[in-house]
Write a structure and sequence with these properties.
Strand order of the largest sheet: 3-6-5-4
Structural class: alpha/beta
Largest sheet: 4 strands, parallel
Shape: globular
Oligomer: single chain
């Protein structure tokens, strides 16, 4: 009920639907920004810092469980004019194709990424993960409209190949756009290198 295949969620404006569905389904609930609850403590200062960030390509929000990481991201999304591509992660995303499928659909809904990415996902095997990343990276690096990609609960993923995919995507985020990571601890995706590069 809450799932669709990749071919069903390709953008309506796409010139052609993906011909073959992958071996997993998209979970719709993962792609929706959680609503803000009444009576939350507004974090105006933090939201303004996030909105003003234009030189960085990655923002890591780390805190223990219950400290409001998701709420902060949702408040930011409510007040930032850029489209947000939201993915709430869980253990099912600890598979590179499932993870990349959810990321691709979220990004497509936030501005479009082209059917080539979905074709690569639909025909994917472990050997073609590099092709998916290459097509996704190409689509991201050529986007002209700024966006924010949210990966919430990143600490629920542990597979090195998935974390490598997160690091690769971070390298493709164009200027003016951001990848926002929320986790209980600093994720192992090469943040020191990105920090040294001013990203």
């Amino acid at each position: 009920m809450g799932t669709r295949t990749i071919r069903q969620v390709a953008r309506k404006g796409s010139p052609k639907r993906v011909a073959t569905a992958p071996a997993f389904e998209i979970t719709e609930a993962k792609l929706s920004r959680p609503p803000l609850r009444p009576g939350i403590v507004r974090r105006t200062g933090l939201v303004e810092r996030l909105r003003a960030s234009r030189s960085a390509s990655v923002v890591a929000i780390t805190a223990p469980a219950g400290y409001g990481k998701t709420t902060l991201l949702a408040e930011w999304a409510e007040r930032d004019p850029r489209p947000f591509a939201w993915v709430s992660l869980d253990e099912a995303d600890d598979d590179p194709v499932v993870f990349l499928g959810h990321v691709a659909v979220a990004l497509d809904r936030a501005g479009g990424i082209g059917r080539q990415v979905f074709e690569a996902i639909a025909s994917s095997t472990g050997a073609t993960q590099g092709r998916i990343l290459s097509r996704l990276g190409s689509a991201l690096s050529t986007r002209t409209q700024p966006f924010v990609l949210v990966l919430d609960d990143l600490d629920r993923l542990s597979e090195p190949v998935v974390m490598d995919a997160v690091a690769t995507i971070a390298g493709y985020v164009p200027e003016g756009s951001l990848m926002a990571l929320a986790a209980r601890a600093v994720p192992n995706i090469g943040l020191p290198r990105l920090r040294a590069d001013g990203r």
